Amino acid sequence: MTHARDAECVVAYRRLRSGVSTPHQIGYGRNMYPAAPELVARVRSLITVLFEQQRMTDYSTGFDGSDRHLISALTARWLGRHDIGPGDVFVMSGSTEAISVVTGYLAGRGYEYVLPLPCYYAFEQSARRWHMPVGAHYNGAGELHGGRPGAPRAVVDIVPNGVTGRRFRLPGRADGDFHVLDSVFQVSAAASGGVAVDDGHLREAVRDLDLGRGCVMLTASKDLSVPGLRAGLLITRDPGLRRYLEADRFERCYALSPLSTAVVALYVALMCARSARRGGTVAARPRLLPPEVAPVRPDADDPLARMLWRSSAVDTLDRYLRGMARHYATVLAVYRERLVPLGIDPAPRYPETGYSLFLPLPVRVDGPEGAVRWCNRVGREAGLKLNPAAIFGGSDEPWAALYDCTRPWVRFNCSVAEPDAVGTVNILETALR
Questions:
Q1: Which of 62, 115, 181, 310 is deepest in the core (most CB within 10 A)?
Q2: 63, 53 contact by CB (below 8 A)
């Protein structure tokens, strides 16, 4: 019954890890760079203050509405979308929750998904749970496979693609399509020039997005290296989706999570500060609490105001992100040096931003089924977890139609924050002999 409910990519993942017990892998689902000490300290102090203000023990306080004013003002400034207001922003438990709730809304209105291939499991799994068809997939060039004429479509754009680290070209869209833009707090693949966060790709994608027929999902969980703080932000001006989100929030958890709210506020404030400094329009320590928001904060000793305005949190996190970018660049250099002699050239697939490369392995197997079996054997016998194409969405047919890469079938997701890149490549070299 479990397999009957799961998407095909999740079934493949369970089979891939069957009998595999090893800490070694290429392609982690979380950031392996140590958590920023400043972030940990701020979260610890925020919890204390939130209890003192009874925000952790009361369903609703005067801060909750003003939090949405704060986040919407910061987000509008950062993304250059001044039409975003307090009623358009929703704090979520990461993008995974946002995907599930949005999928439930779209499924009830007869939509089908158009998903990028490869793609992480959440869209496919939520679609299966909510009985929403995945009508089509598209590849990096925007080539489309599948789709029924006349069916309303929800086109998903992941900026950049979390598996490949690159931006995909969108397939052609109809006027009635719903547009889902999913992005994360991305660290630049290039550590030069002191630039650690690359938000240009996101700002460009959001600029022309019709929020009345779409939504933006943002999460900072992986980059800030605290996966337990599943802090996400959903932005939409679609009236039906906003009503659905308000009803869902009331039904499941009447109050916002004040801690998640604080992390989201810190996230968008950091991006605002970086954008302003990059443009050279402000001093090194700008006032990050928007003037239109400050008067509605109900307490002069507001922890969010203190964190965003009177502390060094943003500056410290900025330095942390630049250190993370240098770490990524170092590990990418290790892969370039060690993988080329194995017949794997990462250069054409160097990520535009983010963590991941999607590299073909020089091993011949019998289609995607053979790839799963081979990777499972490498996990059991050689002690190395690999992530083949089959676990990144779709099925055999769209993979074969959209990618010549199916020869070889084994492509793996390579997260560059590997703590022991040399050691894992040594295991991979043994497995390929």
A1: 115
A2: yes
Q: In what order do the strands lie in the sheet with 89-93?
A: 89-93, 231-236, 214-219, 178-184, 153-159, 112-116, 134-138, 144-146
Whole-model pTM? 0.88
Task: Note down pLDDT in tens along the chain; length 433 residues.
Answer: 344 478 888 988 899 999 999 888 877 766 777 777 877 887 888 888 888 878 787 777 777 777 888 899 889 988 989 999 999 999 988 888 999 999 999 999 999 999 999 988 899 999 999 999 999 999 999 999 987 777 899 999 998 888 888 889 998 877 779 999 998 766 666 555 555 667 778 888 899 899 999 999 998 756 666 667 778 899 999 999 999 999 998 887 655 678 888 888 888 888 887 777 666 554 445 555 666 665 556 565 666 666 666 567 777 877 888 788 788 778 888 888 888 888 888 877 777 776 677 888 888 887 778 888 999 999 999 999 888 888 888 888 888 888 875 555 566 777 766 777 888 888 888 888 8
Which residues have C-beta within 8 Å of that of residue 1, sequence separation ≥ 6? none
Residue pair 119/158 in contact by the 8 Å Cβ criterion:
yes
SS (H, E, C) the chain: CHHHHCCHHHHHHHHHCCCCCCCCECCCCCCCCCCCHHHHHHHHHHHHHHHHCCCCCCCCCHHHHHHHHHHHHHHHHHHCCCCCCHHHEEEEEHHHHHHHHHHHHHHCCCCEEEEECCCCCHHHHHHHHCCCCEEEEECCCCCEEECCCCCCEEEEEEECCCCCCCCCCCCCCCCCCEEEEEEECCEECCCHHHCCECCHHHHHHHHCCCHHHEEEEEECCCCCCCCCCCEEEEEECCHHHHHHHHHHHHHHCCCCCHHHHHHHHHHHHHHHHHHHHHHCCCCCCCCCCCCCCHHHCCCCCCHHHHHHHHCCHHHHHHHHHHHHHHHHHHHHHHHHHHHHHHCCCCHHHCCCECCEEEEECCCCCCHHHHHHHHHHHHHHHHCCECCCHHHCCCCHHHHHHHCHHHCCCCEEEEECCCCCHHHHHHHHHHHHC
CB 153 within 8 A of CB 178: yes
Q: What is the CA radius of gyration of the chain?
A: 22
